[in-house]
Design goal:
The protein has two domains: 112 residues, Glutaredoxin; 60 residues, no CATH class. It is built from eight helices and seven strands. It is 43% helix and 17% strand. It is elongated, with a radius of gyration of 20 Å. It is α/β, with parallel strands linked by helices.
Length: 180
Amino acid sequence: MRSIAFVAAASLALVGCKKKDEAKPTGGGTGSQPAATAACKGGEVKGPIAWFEDDYPAALACAKASGRPLVVDMWAPWCHTCLSMSATVLVDASLAPLADRFVWVGLDTDRETRTQGMDRNMLGLYETLRKAKNGRAVARLDRGNCLGCNVTLPTNMVSRVRQADFLVQCPRCERILVAG
């Protein structure tokens, strides 16, 4: 059902935008406008598409600045169809011709529920790292090594990670470490 809705929405958007796109000079979406380029930074590339993950305000700002329609993928971690779409359909190379015609945002519909009660500073750190580290804010600790960057950590740091009393970041790659 979700795939049918997505295809229908994309088809309608293509039909609705066809005349506008023919009137615009070619040049690839945001490339010729500095304001649009600045507003559209921060998308995480998955397959042929740059996605704004759980950042609707940034995606909307990009869409407004670049004059492109916004495609919203609403998903949930418990929805197997949603996860299948994200892993196969939405990363397929056949979407490459559409990549620059739209601004793409993926919204986790259960995010607020799962993050209730979390320390906002820790959540902010996680979000900052996730964006800076291509979606991988957390690294597993294995035999004293950070698996994010393969650096060997001092024994006292390994002990703090295993105690799990507070967040410990790798001194090299800055990812949040978890005992594995």
